[in-house]
Amino acid sequence: MSWSWIWLFLSYTILELLISGIFHLVSKKLGAQENRVRSVIKGMLERLFLIIGLLSGFPQVIIAFAAIKIGTRFQKDSKVSNDYFLIGNFVSLLGALLFVLYTIHYLGF
Description:
Blueprint: H1 3-30, H2 36-55, H3 61-73, H4 79-107
Helix pairs in contact: 2-4, 3-4
């Protein structure tokens, strides 16, 4: 493992810790009662999707991100289905991005 990968992992971990701390303070101030663990995992997945996509040279991930976020707002009556929709779409898109990167980098396509 090269130093650049180690640095990338450490900087991402620091970013997540900072963001988690900020969101914790804001949610305490606003009195938010949402499931904290679920929110943290969704946020990490969203940021990971955006970071991998942007670092890979696919700025279109921002459009996909916005479309998925808007799509979760259409169905207000079921929180579970919104979370399922959001997480499922990000995992699918992240898997596709990682497959494309693997194919380009290791298989030379």
